[in-house]
Design goal:
By secondary structure, the chain is α/β, with parallel strands linked by helices. The chain has helices at 13-17, 30-50, 65-77, 104-110, 112-120, 133-145, 157-166, and strands at 4-8, 58-61, 86-87, 151-155, 185-189, 192-196. The protein has one domain (4-196): Rossmann fold.
Length: 197
């Protein structure tokens, strides 16, 4: 099994406002950049402790700018060239479709029936013109199965939950409810998950 050092992108202004981002390309804010730099330091210390050469790993990011800038700052902290990494569309955040840009509170007012359906079964629910967590879990399984080396990843909360479900670290019904923090390195190794902050 490949080891994945997984970092959710740093904070954006939409995170602060509670807006659903999905595929919208929202940039990091200053706090998000600080979180990304912190993850670079955490990774550097982890690699030093475990005797891992950072150059030997694969580096791959979601193509959205909040993830790619996070990767650039992480690599800077490792003393690696900022832009030397792959972008993979399979790591895109779960799509919220027509709901992107809205807050959950607004959707409770404007789309109460579908929000109730989502709260009843978050794993299988598909937002209008969006994706379900089940779909993202299948996408992340394909992505993980395609890895040829241990990897450092910068992506999103939804894709992290999908990876947890696809690797059996979380039950499908529980995975969408797990909080994925920013400024934290999640290490998927040998069927287990560890967090480093």
């Amino acid at each position: 099994m490949k080891t994945v050092y997984y970092i959710r992108h740093g904070e954006t202004d939409w995170n602060v406002a509670g807006r659903l981002q999905g595929h919208r390309d929202i940039p990091l804010n200053d706090n998000g950049r600080a979180q990304a730099r912190h993850c670079g330091v955490v990774l550097r210390d982890l690699f030093a402790k475990d005797g891992i050469d950072p150059v030997a790993l694969d580096y791959v990011s979601s193509p959205l700018s909040r993830a790619t800038e996070t990767m650039e700052l992480v690599r800077e902290g490792l003393g690696l060239p900022r832009g030397d990494f792959r972008r993979d569309d399979q790591l895109l955040e779960l799509s919220f479709g027509d709901w992107e840009g809205a807050t959950i509170a607004l959707l409770h007012q404007n789309d109460p029936v579908r929000i109730a359906q989502r709260e009843h079964d978050k794993f299988h629910f598909v937002p209008p013109n969006g994706e379900s967590y089940r779909m993202v879990t299948e996408r992340m399984k394909r992505w993980y199965d395609g890895l040829t080396a241990d990897a450092v990843v910068t992506a999103h909360g939804g894709t992290c939950r999908g990876l947890m479900a696809s690797l059996g670290i979380a039950q499908p019904a529980a995975a969408p409810l797990i909080d994925i923090a920013q400024g934290v390195v999640y290490v998927f190794r040998a069927g287990k998950l560890a967090r480093y902050a």
